[in-house]
Amino acid sequence: MKTPWLVNGKLANLYLLYGTERHLLEEWEREIVKAALPDGERFDYMKIDLNDQPLDAVLDEAETVPFLSDYRVVVAKPATFLTGAKDKKQHNLERLADYILQPADYAVVVLIVEAEKLDERKTVVKRLKERATVLEAKKPTTEELFRFVLDAVNDKGYRMERPAIERLIFLTAEMWGTLAHELEKLMLFAGDRPTIEIEDVDLLVPRTLEDNVFQLTDYLMKRQLEPAIRLIRDLEKQGQEVLALLGLMARQYRMMLLSKRLAEQGYGERQIASKVGAHPYAIKLALQSAKRFTFAQLEQALIAITTTDEGMKTGRGDKKILFDALIVRLATL
């Protein structure tokens, strides 16, 4: 496991953890606390909610000598005062700015805020960036998620092939926390079985709306009308609006058309994904589906979808009737 919270192999006295990936923020917090208090000693651990308590309480705790451990660990969040957002409480930022210059060597203070950006204009932010260990939990790349899954299953003695990992990443919408949760569930389900299969992923991991539309489009391109209608009815029972489904279908057919054109020009899946602005796995599925249709058929499908969309928005008929008519039309192209 990577240890970005260690500085030259040692704990820092002051941390700032920020970013949009909650799972990563929580993991870093756990690992820092575990490294500082390896025996799990709770007398020297304090967690402070900055919505309820002032920053002074954090610094008072940080300046308290540890009782039974080498470090006094103080975790404080949300440190909203480090961003441009309005804070619920007034905090003594001058005292924090002074503390940053000379933190207690027996304390490990961890400030956490779930935010994309910090307010770089603030003196306290500038000092933290200069003096503290600052870690940003940003949205991971597909390769980082792939490596995360591979390392996690290997650590537990399991195997997982690339198609299964790609499927898992796609179904969890590249969200680190959701991915970690679903992966844990898959490993529990596998039990003594050494390999986690793609069938396990499809069985256990909830489908996203986008994936359901992929499935719907696949049924239509295979001219499988009955399962397509069943899937639509299931989605309607879940509260999905036909206009939303129509929009995603239009996106899917456009992706297939554009991907097919770029593939014929010699572009690879990753290059196409970059140009189209889609997940590589989505492009892989789009190219597989597009092989069944000619350019003319894909263009006809898009014209039919656009016509239906206009009909719905101008009130030329009942939305569900128009949508069902479109489904029949697409299944017979």
UniProtKB/TrEMBL annotation:
GO terms for biological process: DNA-templated DNA replication. Keywords: DNA replication, DNA-directed DNA polymerase, Nucleotidyltransferase, Transferase. The keyword Transferase applies. It is an enzyme of class 2 (transferase). Residues 15-138 form the DNA polymerase III delta N-terminal domain. It comes from the Bacteria. It catalyses: DNA(n) + a 2'-deoxyribonucleoside 5'-triphosphate = DNA(n+1) + diphosphate. Its EC number is 2.7.7.7. The keyword Membrane does not apply. Residues 210-330 form the DNA polymerase III delta subunit-like C-terminal domain. This is DNA polymerase III subunit delta. It comes from Exiguobacterium indicum. The lineage of its organism: Bacteria, Bacillati, Bacillota, Bacilli, Bacillales.
